[in-house]
What does this fold into?
Amino acid sequence: MKLVAQSAPYIRKPVSVKRMMMDVLIALVPVLLFACIQNGWSGIYVILISVVTMLITELVCHLFIKWPSGMKLKELFHKEGWSKVKKQYTINNFTAPLISAIIYALLLPANCNGYVVFIGALFGMLIGKMIFGGLGSNIFNPAATGRVFVGVCFGSKLIYGQGGVGIDVTASGTPLAAIKGNLGMVGVALENYSLLDLFLGSIPGSMGEVSALFILIGAIYLFVRRSADLRACLSMILSFAVITLVASITTYFVWQNEISQIRDINLMMHPWNYHWNVFDLFMYEMLAGGLLFGAVFMITDPVTSPTTKFGRVAFGAMAGIITALVRYCGAYPEGVAFSILIANMFAPAMDYLMRGKKNTYTWKQILGLSLTLIVICLIVGFSVASQVKIGGVA
It folds into this structure.
């Protein structure tokens, strides 16, 4: 038997890489159109800058990586030399950076400065992908790499808005920022952002993350076409949902206990004390932020995820757990991009641990994952309980 070394993605079904990438582009169309219509030219500019930057970066770096042996630079401008270079550049070298560019742009607000978009796109493509050798060799998601970089370096420049109207995120303009540090304030937040608004996308936030409806439309297309792995997506959503349910129940009962001890009649009569329940908080957390977008379009990336069945389940669960820890215990209101990058680091280790074992599920694996989830639920439960304050005041 002859072993042939090849790069990712590794596909165990009758689906070509070309078709998978085209399906992802098609699945992104509803979200992309919604972002352009809602945000107008300010959103279109962000998308165009991202696309041009990543495509050119991919092309230039690919020329260096795949430069024909013995060929001189001046030969590039002749027909024979250009033909040699063109043979090394396939449709996948165009669609892959195009997908990364669109996803990266959709992770940004529409009013983002052009130079911030450019720097993040350049960093994401160079450091997140091309430095590892290009298509199929990267271990980090380029879009998440660029988004985390601009979030850390240019956080004050990210102005979130709706329909082109900027709202400063530091002023609790986004749904998640409105309840960060005190989930009990969801009653107040629901006065501004209803669950229907969160589902349809009539809220401020990153262009592609706000509308759960159009994300789910894209998800249905991807999974019907079998162009994305359902295990990683579901395990990320379900692990986050379990932790969020615990956080919601804990917050509700602690909040009600705080209300029962209030003696100030003005606080007792305030509507934020009564007009929400566990379901409201749970759905608010599930629909707000980038959880669904990350679970559908980012965690399912076949290049940066494990190749084994349980590996992908554990990979998605890790991303969901880290997202919950960042939201409920960390300093940032959102943690999807961070969680995906951290999970990316462990993907090779997950495959290594499964080496030589049957590509299936065992009771030990399920038990270990369940115990981990229980421990995280306890940590999050104690954390959110300590943060609950009536009226936002300790």
User: Anything to note?
Assistant: The chain has 17 helices and two strands. The beta strands are 159-162, 165-168. The CA atoms of residues 261 and 268 lie 10 Å apart. Residues 1-5, 164-172 have pLDDT under 50 and may be disordered.
